[in-house]
Amino acid sequence: MTLKRFMNEAISPWMREEGPDSDIVLSSRIRLARNFSSVSYPIFADRVKLTEIRDFFKEEYEHRSFQDYEDFAFISIQDLSDVEKRVLVEKHLISPHLSKNEGAAATIISKNEQVSIMINEEDHIRLQLYFPGFQLSKALEKAFQLDDWLEEKVNYAFDETRGYLTSCPTNVGTGMRASVMMHLPALAMTKQINRMIPAINQLGLVVRGIYGEGSEAQGNIFQISNQITLGKSEEDIIGDLQSVVNQLIEHERNARSHIMKQSSTKLEDRIYRSYGVLDYSRVIGSNEAAICLSNVRLGIDLGLIKNVSRNILNELMILTQPGFLQQYAKATLSADERDKLRATLIRERLQLENR
To answer: pTM of whole model > 0.85?
Structure first.
């Protein structure tokens, strides 16, 4: 597995699969934060120690496989261009934080891009695992197995009372962040999401944008994740999150049904106008593209648009991000140039799908 493939394919192989409730839940993710017991956290550790950790992972895990996750590729962050870093962030293979940590930072990514292990980010190890649709329990089971596999060669920083020790106190305990990526256009259209977010926060969960902390909810895509990691088991945290997500799924479906009954003509007009913009525009900004893609995806889910697959929309949501556009063009582009190329790629992809 080479860096070239990660750069050139907008949609990860695992994203092509359908999962439970995939009309609303795009993906389920488990992330585990772990640290070496004998080394200071990355924020304090010297470069020599962090380099030793990076080199250890390269030696032990490059080109290794574990169960269904084959041929792990080792990538050193300092060897990447700014565009390549941005592409990996846009594909959720690394975090924005890791992309800025050059030094001894690295990542290990499985061939199907379902697993990535970030090295020397905020913690020495941040293992993350994705599944399509709403599959938190299955993702947790597989994450535990991968965690055990790593622990065969790594002595984790662990306290019998506090649990796993992490750089940030908010991750102490399980060290786990469980999250689901949800497409909630009807709740956004009806403004219901605005009153739901504060209620969700009161339950110890947090609602963020597509790229996590500090990001906006582009294209009506929201990330729901746990805040509490201490005092609850992983299974209890997952149970709480699943309960809230199930309620959001129900509310979103009810809102879609209500809009179809009360304002079907306006909704259809909104969806088909968005399709027309995507199919004919010569210039389109990232925000407008995200909104139009969200509307068209809703049209597909409601059965109004039948000649476009959901996967095409997933692909375009990533392909039209700034990093991917510049990777595609093999050049640094101005904002205007990105807007022109974005419109061209969308038109070409939709026309290819129609053919």
So the answer is: yes
